[in-house]
Amino acid sequence: MSKPTLLHLGEPIKWNHDLYVKLDETFDIVKNECLTRDSFIQALKERKYGDFYAMYRPFWNSGIEMGNWDRELIDLLPSSVKIFASAGAGYDWADTEYFAQRGILYCNSAPACTESVADAAIWLMLNTFRDFSWSVRAARSLDPDQFWDAHRNIPAVTHNPRGHKLGIIGLGKIGYRIAEKAHIAFGMKILYHDIVQKSPELEWSVGADFYDNLTDMLAISDCVIVATPFGGSKVLDESIISKMKHGSRLCNIARGKLIDEDALISALESGQITAAGLDVHYNEPHVNPKLAGMNNVVVMCHTAGASIESHIGFERLGMENLLGFFETGKALTPSSEDLSLVKVTAAPLPAPSLAPPAMSDLTAQVLDALSSGDSVLSSDAFPSVPSTTVKSALDRLASRDMVSYQTLDREEAVLTEEGKTIAEEGSHEAKVFEAVQKAMEGLKIGDLQGIVGKESAKVGAGKAFKEGWIKKEKDLLVANTDSITDVTREQLQTIQKTHTFPDAKTIADLRKRKLVVLQKVISFSISKGPKYAKEFVKEETDLTAEMLASGSWKNLKLKPYNFKALGAHAPTGALHPLNKVRHEFRQIFFEMGFTEMPTNRFVETGFWNFDALYVPQQHPARDLHDTFYISDPAVAGKPRPEPEAARLASKSSKSGVKEELLDYEAYWNNVRDVHESGKYGSIGYRYPWNPKEALRLVLRTHTTAVSTVMLHKLAANPRPARYFSIDRVFRNESVDATHLAEFHQVEGVIADFNLTLGGLIGFMETFFAKMGVHGLRFKPAYNPYTEPSMEIFGWHEGLGKWVEIGNSGMFRPEMLESMGMPKDMRVYGWGLSLERPTMIKYGVRNIRDLLGHKVDLNFIESNPAVRLEKE
């Protein structure tokens, strides 16, 4: 059978010569020598290349002289063309939809440059945040004034990308790799817009959130990267760009025609977009002069994918597409707009063998083959039937005890395509010997390849020398014997006929030369079962009214009931993993004599959340970036007795109400004095304390605010006490795989007289031992309301390192004595998150899989109750 013709467009290949040899063996390669569009059109009209089967363009900058592949060119292609394998990541230069209508599969090589393009995208993104270009321009100017200007002013206008939101338009292979690098290396929050939402597993791997509406994503993205193919129209026009977050950044590594450059310029001039990075341009090779002249824009020459590794991959992937399509009818990276229009038909193949028998026919054949006696039957009697089909038929018969069988497996030697060729035509070394022998006066070394081919010359000459079949005389090869035995060919022919192994050394040598592979072959040894019958009678599973009315049921075989079959699993309720671990913590606290504090106050005043805890009003924790402030109502009244307590006190004969009111007023004044001028041995913060700031309403940032309220109540009757709480707190943080805007805090306090730091360390070791954590380490730390303060570290076996598991300290005298606590009363305080131990126990990597709307209900239902290791 003759080989199909392949039309090679543009330059010769440069790197993957080994694969090109296989391509040459598979196809009759014709080189395109008419590189201009006009000459190429004329060549197609004249049928210069005949009825070629495939086209190959190995480089993105090769063959472009012919211009775009539009209808004019495609209509001139012969009907024999089935595939066009091209280099490059895009396909805007080819009418892929019309290719599909013509039944031609178009393949690009986008995966080959994924790494290079993603690296370039990250570099452009970094530059939009850090403005490295400014520093480069200043340094290259050799002007000291420009140097110091950049040195002084760049820090005031640039940002780190960490924690910012990166919006990606198109989460294909390149978009996903960009997301991976940005999320893992720079801690960026990933948002993406695409035609179809990706799988939950893929989203989870990069912490990505899907936005069906593009403008919704643009409105909150700090930087946007365009990574989608060009579909014939702009993605970012003036109306869309106007929806981008003010002060955001834009990078394009896809196609220039996706962005309205005039609208981009206007957005850059107005400050809507602060910086841009453009690898591609609307009218390449011409770059927009306004964009090129802007200092806050980086422009490149469409070289994001331009690396040696990419070009090697382009060249290789194109050939792999051709070979895969020819051998299996499927290409690796098809890019047709409508693949359903493409009839994926490979080159003519030998007529297939007869189709395997249907299941019912096969069971009948097995039973018939066993009818002659009880002798064992091998499934090798059905060579055309896949082993999986045979097993299904045997299982069907075995379920009725009609047959029994054993599974047998063995290894067989099978020839590769090259091995088959050698078995038919002779080995490379034999071909070399024959060529040399025919040249009576010797064969020039340089002529050998032209006679036997590149592969045979390369492999066969060395082996022919090694066997002593040929020798070298000056620049000639001459025969060293009159005749030879082509042992390699004979070995392969034997294997081809018998599938048996020669000796171990021979098979190892043939496998090393990739002439033979070992395949596992499964067969079955079959014998009659206790209920063997020559015919397989179908068992009815339903007794119908028609059967009863007609009486046909009397002649039917009914399938017996299986009373041992398990019933359907009854669904039950399930606790959320956080609730399970929370329950375990509560039990530990109760075992150690703690009382649970009421925590039903999500909204607190700044007084209880900050001021009473000796946190100054200018502390960064009180900034809008860290705390959620309530807008309506924005403030509350001064601290006062709870209404129910005041009502009960007013009924008593004692003056409890007055004392209570005075107590709150005195507490308010004491806190103010501690902040402004110091008290109880402290010099204070020495700033004018603002009562209005203390009355602002916030979503509590920690449950220590609850502890403060409880300790203040305890001050009315000082006594030893142990309190704990486990509840939700709120922080104005960027949401990512390890951070949420709301989470749970586990907190404990112990009040007693004359407590010491050593006692706190000892108690922490006992407390965490009940959680299964031993060998703690403590590190000095700073908290505004505790002194001394310590971070608590435990050894994490899985990570193989020390990790912080909590924070602790002794409440400051300024905090306690302001409440009215006696001087010898001391209070331990410590806390940790509920989510971290839960994530460790359940192997959860993304906190959003544990809390929030993305929690998988199957995860909750499939996890049993957790138990912390206690002593």
TrEMBL record:
UniProt-listed Enzyme Commission number(s): 6.1.1.20
Domain of life: Eukaryota
Reaction catalysis annotation: tRNA(Phe) + L-phenylalanine + ATP = L-phenylalanyl-tRNA(Phe) + AMP + diphosphate + H(+)
Broad class of enzyme this protein falls into: ligase
CDD domains recorded: Mand_dh_like, PheRS_alpha_core
Any Gene Ontology biological process: phenylalanyl-tRNA aminoacylation
Main location: cytoplasm
Domain Aminoacyl-transfer RNA synthetases class-II family profile: 579-864
Any one GO MF annotation of this record: NAD binding
Protein name in UniProt: Phenylalanine--tRNA ligase alpha subunit
Organism: Glutinoglossum americanum
